[in-house]
Fold this protein.
Amino acid sequence: MINEILLYIGSVIILIWGISHIIPTKSVVRGFGKISEDNKKIITMEWIAEGLTLCFIGGLVLIITLFEGINCYVSFIVYRLSALMLLVMAGLTAMTGARTSNIPIKLCPIVKTIVAILYLLGSML
């Protein structure tokens, strides 16, 4: 029971983080100042892509837990691979965006790592 709760909590956190990543896209792009239209499109695409990826990971874990349960081998694989992807994304963010002065971006690797830990714990208990 506790492992399901950990998985659900992690899923909700990363879904909300993904949605909150997508919502401010326009203001994030504006924050780059005067850049070319091509660069604006690339930043927009990448910002939305990361948000969608986070939403996908959270949604996938949520759906697999709801419909297959935690005792299914496929569920175990989904939890572990989702945790791995979040850790890779956390590492990438820690080496790039988190080195800026933007506080939410500095928090991003922490949030991703916490959710990855919740997924790993949820798949072990």
